[in-house]
Amino acid sequence: MAAVVEANGGDLRSAQRVMAAAKRRTPLVRDLRTSTENIRVAASMRHGHPRDDGIPRRRVDRPRASWEEIMKTSARIGIVILGLMSLGNVPSILTTDGEHPPMAIAAVLTFLGIAGLVLTVLAWRGNRSSLIALVALQAVSALSSVPAFTSDGVPAGLQVVAALGIAITVLGIALVVPVLRGRPTHVAA
To answer: For a tag site, which of 101, 154, 172, 183 has the least CB within 10 Å?
Structure first.
């Protein structure tokens, strides 16, 4: 008993609980460092442990969450929004009249749309660098519609579509960026 008291930092009560656990034929965990952990182990054995196979388990502080654990619902919604914007850019070269948008901008948008779809799939699977590239690609795609507001002769309907595209892209990026910064987004309930 004296050795158990000494192992528990001189705390007699913790030593008695460890000895009681030993009498119930449960294996002792030898590497527990504090008496509070001994109490927690003994209590978990008495009240049923989630893995109640008679083996006491130490509570281990987990390291920082992995990328998969960080991905929150808002970030996934942001990835979907950015993916849908990429999908909307793919047929740009087929829908242009050559003037609005110009053929060169339509070709660039089509390329950005295809690349964005590939990056969306990779980002959905948890690839952080693909998510960063997707955000950058969508920012460039949104900036490519700025000439709709600066050029003369662009129909008002196309300007509205360009403004909506920019707003939706900004929304998607805003949902994803907190995850990239390492902070989960907080949604007010």
So the answer is: 183
Give the separation between CA 55 and CA 109, rounded to whole angstroms: 60
Q: Say which amino acid occupies 159.
A: Q
Q: Give the number of C-alpha atoms closer than 13 A to the C-alpha of residue 8, restricted to the C-beta side.
A: 22
Looking up tokens 């000494």, which residue turns up? Answer: 6
- Tens of pLDDT, residue by residue over 123-170, are 998 888 999 999 999 999 999 888 888 888 888 888 899 999 999 999
Side chain identity at residue 169, one-letter code: T
What do you get for the CA distance between the two ends of the chain, in Å? Answer: 54
> Residue 42 has which token pair?
């003994």
The model carries a pTM of 0.57
Cα–Cα nearest to 140, from 108, 114, 184: 108
